[in-house]
Amino acid sequence: MQVAPPPLRVEAIPTPRRGYAWVPGYWNWRGQRHVWVAGSWMRERQGYRYDAPRWQERDGRWTQERGRWSRRDRDRDGVPNGQDGRPDDPRRN
Asked: What is the structure's pLDDT at 70?
């Protein structure tokens, strides 16, 4: 699609809820226009982090990456924390 999403809306983040992650609002494409989807609470998944939906422009076309859960990888070495013998190794980038 060649239509960029509008700027994100400012949402007040509610008081944290134990066992839940706040998923911020985002613009979704429905039919022929962008529609705002308000932020909401989602039950946390142990050992995972939530990557919110986002739009990316590539060669003049806009695509949306859907929100998803991904394994936590604090030191960003490609090995999820649960499988990493040294998940906080400061020498890793």
From this structure: 84
